[in-house]
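Justification of resources, computational component.

The compute hours requested in this renewal are based largely on the per-chain cost of generating structure records like the one below. Each record pairs the submitted sequence with a full structure-token output. That output is archived, and it is also reused by downstream analysis tasks.
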Amino acid sequence: MAKAQKASRSTGAMRTLLLTLLLPLHILASTLHLALGANPSRINPLLATDSASGEISGWIFNGLVKFDKNGQIVGDLAESWRFESPVKLIFDLRKRVKWHDGEPFGADDVVFTFSLLKSSRIFTPYASDFRYVKSVRALDPSRVEVIYKEPYFKALSIWMMGILPRHLWKDVEDPMTSELNREPVGTGPYRLKSMQNSGDVILEANDDYFEHRPNIDVIHYHFMPDPTTQFLMLKAKKLDLGSLTPLQRERQIDSSFLDYYRIVQMQGRGYTYLGFNLTLPKFRDLRVRKALDMAIDKQELIRILFFSYGKVCYGPFMPGTFAYPKRVTKSGYDPQKAKELLAQAGYSEARPLEFTISTNANNTTRLYAAQIIQHQLAKIGVKVKIRAMEWQAFLNTVVTPRRFEVILLGWSLGLIPDAYALWHSDSDRLGGFNLVGYRNEKVDEMIERAEKLTDMEKVGEIYREMFNIIAADIPYIFLYIPDSITAINREITPIVPSIIGIMHNQVDWKKP
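The structure output for this chain reads:
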């Protein structure tokens, strides 16, 4: 009997060992569980224009430079760099960096990536960032020379673009449809293990990563296109990290959730605005624009829409960056002063100011914001109608042809803003992003002057002054910057929130 029990225990132990050996690596290894809301289309930094493709590409590829946690540019594949003149930039590359297939990375890969980016074989919006680059050449296997047509303030930051392996891509006939877009090989901290259509994506740690091997072995992206499902998975503690809405944060999580997850609240990376069609006579009057600005209670908007998880936006550039002034003019909520300004502009109860706010119907937060603004402006006698349309119809019939009086939209905030796209007079054209028709000769001159500098301190001086000029002109009513709210498994350390988010030091993360 004893022998039979011993044999049974031995057989059971062997079965357990065999089952363990047969388990997939990501079940046994230290695994970071994340959610993915859409299918990656092309995992290629030159072609990753959707958020899912960009997120996966970010783990697999490196640029020559990157942002550190303070928003400063530091080396990535480049160990160092120097401007030998305002138009000549030299990169010294890291040595002994390997591609995921074991081949060495070098200067030829950088030259090839630029050539492909600018070739007629590929269609990518990122090519415009390199419009001032005249030539790129390898000086030796670990040095690259970049010559610009003229000085350019983004001369360094454009090289955050991920670099492709020349030895794999050089003979590809059609880069747009190549299998390499689904089977990527990079230099990054993780390599692609598996990817399913409308399914999960699994990444595994790169043992040869030049910083050091990531401490977490596997990143498992669970395909969940429905945000509600993502939230339920978070509540079930099946994800290690996920975003929360203000409503979820305030009303839909309990103490057990907070015991398991740490909540990190940070400034968001985008603002919402009311943009005036400045070609219309009523909105050319600064008194009218100022009155409307003073009649909107932005704090009330943030309180109602976001349970106070947000900040008032005071101008066009991101708070905390080199482009944001130390002192900004903060126009407060003053409905009485707003009435006086409207009276000075010729409006009264008998002749009220009237206009329509146009926005997209599928963004419920914006729609609610429009309704609150409508109510607030009614208090000073302004009559507002709301026109909400499906996104594509909104773009095609309202935004692109500029058929609006006032538009309610949002814009993302970058660490290195490019004011040309939104605020230069040349962008006041069909297809341009200067949708409101803003024109200011001094701002044009400042944008052009800043573009030709490589000293970012001097660029910052110009941009900070420009911020105050644009804010004073009120081409937009800058409304709010919602906070981002993230839940993170408390077992994961070290989490270091920063201006660029929380993932900047992920290779150092540990998960028991």
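The CA atoms of residues 248 and 302 lie 16 Å apart. The domain at 51-181 is CATH 3.90.76.10 (Dipeptide-binding Protein; domain 1).
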